[in-house]
Amino acid sequence: MSTKTKNQKPLIIAAIVFVVLVVAGVVIWQVTVPKGTAGAKAYTLTVVDADGKETVHNLNTDEEMLGTALQDADLIEGEESEYGLFVTKVDGIEADSANQEWWCLTINGEMASTGVDSTPVEDGGKYEFTLTVGY
User: Which of 57, 81, 53 lies closest to 69, judged by CA?
Assistant: First the structure.
């Protein structure tokens, strides 16, 4: 056996050990990382109906955007538009466009400047949909 072959054996063994350790590390990480079934982000959605009655939902999600999280929780429905989801129904209450009703989204007490599809879910965030009358 040549000297070159003898010098390569430890390198090959080291490479194999390295690959095995990396694979083992990935497997251990996949097994131990939380699966997020409850959701990593806790947030609150308050729904205010036409009579001013408030319903508070304490929710958890792993979703990045509020629209997807609320659709997954079956709390909103709407129509897709060029600007994203136009929310027409919240918590089973449908806005009546004939009466100029619409759902106003507020985030931590301030009117949202983004649509529900482009509003990130923040851990501890407070979101509110208020049934509003008049355009």
Answer: 57
**Looking at domain 41-133, does it have CATH number 2.170.130.30?**
yes
Residue 109, pLDDT above cutoff 70: yes
Q: Is 104 helix (H, G, I), strand (E, B) or coil?
A: strand
Q: What are the residues whose beta carbons fall under 8 Å from the beta carbon of 61, sequence distance 6 or more?
A: 39, 40, 41, 43, 69, 72, 73, 121
pLDDT band for position 5 (cuts 50, 70, 90): low
User: What does residue 17 show for φ and ψ, rounded to 5 degrees?
Assistant: -60, -40
Residues, the chain: 135
Residue type, 46: T
Task: Provide the CA 58 distance to its chain's centre, in angstroms.
Answer: 14
| Nearest-5° Cα angle at 87, 36 to 39 | 5
Other C-beta atoms closer than 10 Å to the C-beta of 114 total 13
Task: Provide the pLDDT for residue 134.
Answer: 85
The pair phi, psi for residue 16, each rounded to 5°, is -65, -45
